[in-house]
Amino acid sequence: MLSSTFECLYGTFVKIVHEKLYDSLIATPVSAEDAVAGDIAWAAFRGLVSGKYLGELEVDIDGSEVNLAGSRMLPVDKKVHKDPSLLNTLNFLKAGIVADPRFGPVYSQHVAMADRDMEKKWREGDAYRDTALGNLVADALKDGVKANGFPADIVLEANGYLAYKIHKGNVVGNDIMRAVPYGYDPESGLGFKMDCVLLAGAQLLAGLEYSVSYVEYTTDLCMEVSGFSFHYDSTKPPTTDPTQLSRLDPASVLINGLPVSLEKVYWIAMSEQLHNFLVSMGITPFDAKKTGLLEYNLVRDYMHKLNHVDYRAEGRVIDTGIK
User: Fold this and answer.
1) Confidence at residue 44, expressed as pLDDT on a 0 to 100 scale
2) Of 73-77, 220-224, 246-250, minimum mean pLDDT range
3) DSSP 118
4) How far is 29 from 27, CA to CA, in rounded Å?
5) What is the CA radius of gyration of the chain?
6) Which stretches does DSSP call E strand in the chain?
7) Residue 88 CB contacts under 8 Å (≥ 6 apart), including other chains
8) Are 110 and 307 in contact (CB under 8 A)?
9) Mean pLDDT of the chain
10) Cα distance from N-terminal residue to C-terminal residue, the chain
11) Residues contacting residue 225 through CB under 8 Å, at least 6 positions apart
């Protein structure tokens, strides 16, 4: 998840602003659409490979000179055993995390009980394009943002910002850390903070159309939602005109059960990273509020409040192109 996310966000920014790579590409017979599709496919491949293999390098050191002697890729599977020589180091690091007041007993303290595995992936062949983990996280963010006095008609979260499923059984803080981003905020040691942004219905539809334009290549841009539902058709061609809709069915877009209005403005809670991404696309909010609320804390507190957590895909987002 981190490999593909940073490749698409920060990597793309560097290529556009500093390296001017895309300027060179589109000066060739390669189209802009092909360049974008190629980059997304590469990012998805990087995310896949980084989760399935470990790299091993063998080097020769001769004084101050270091030369590569060989390399190999090791598949991450049940054949990979614990290395006893590393256990003391790992246990020392875990003890340091627990002793840090920012984290505490994240490996042992009960948070909630998960009644089922809550996946971040779609079910194969299913038209439902929401996920159990995505629905849990989106509902938790909406509940926490509103409980702290901030406006939130709906919540949007990118699937690419979710890392790993929550397993059935006892849930501790470390399980939630593996599910949502952490480590990005140096002060807390935790992850993304929430913003509330004010968007017109037309801007929301444009953002949704973009999010479903690359579903053949990656799920990272797909939205997990709360207080919100919509349909799209992946068999239709993606639009190349940001002012037009192709795959998204605008009549299906409901906000808290009511049809979206193009002229009306809505408060949308999202991570500060997703907010920044929207602005980079040219979707500028009419207003924005920084909440200072951390995703990890909101999900943890929501799960603790529920105690028994039972989430599944329920059709908040549906691909009507899948029969």
Assistant:
1) 58
2) 73-77
3) B
4) 7
5) 21
6) 53-62, 65-75, 110-114, 154-158, 169-172, 193-200, 223-226, 228-232, 248-255, 258-259, 265-271, 287-294, 308-309, 317-319
7) none
8) no
9) 85
10) 28
11) 130, 134, 138, 154, 155, 156, 157, 316, 317
> Hey, what amino acid is at 117?
D
Q: Residue 172 in contact with residue 108, Cβ under 8 Å?
A: yes
Angle separating helix axes 132-147 and 295-306, nearest 10 degrees: 100
| Largest pairwise CA distance in the chain | 71
Domains and CATH numbers, the chain: 2-75 (no CATH), 112-319 (3.90.780.10)
Q: Which of 34, 35, 42, 32 is nearest to 8 (CA)?
A: 42
Mean of pLDDT values over 70-94: 80
The pLDDT tens digits for 134-160 are: 999 999 999 999 999 999 999 999 988
- Confidence label for 17 from pLDDT (cuts 50, 70 and 90): low
Write down the residue that tokens 């919509």 correspond to.
Answer: 230
Question: What are the tokens at 3?
Answer: 């490999």
Taking the complete model, does pTM exceed 0.90, yes or no? no
Residue 18's pLDDT is 47
Name residues whose C-beta falls within 8 Å of residue 128's C-beta, 6 or more positions apart in sequence. 122, 313, 314, 315, 317, 318
Measured from the Cβ of residue 99, the count of other Cβ atoms closer than 10 Å reads 10
Lowest mean pLDDT across 47-51, 118-122, 250-254: 47-51
pLDDT at 233 > cutoff 70: yes
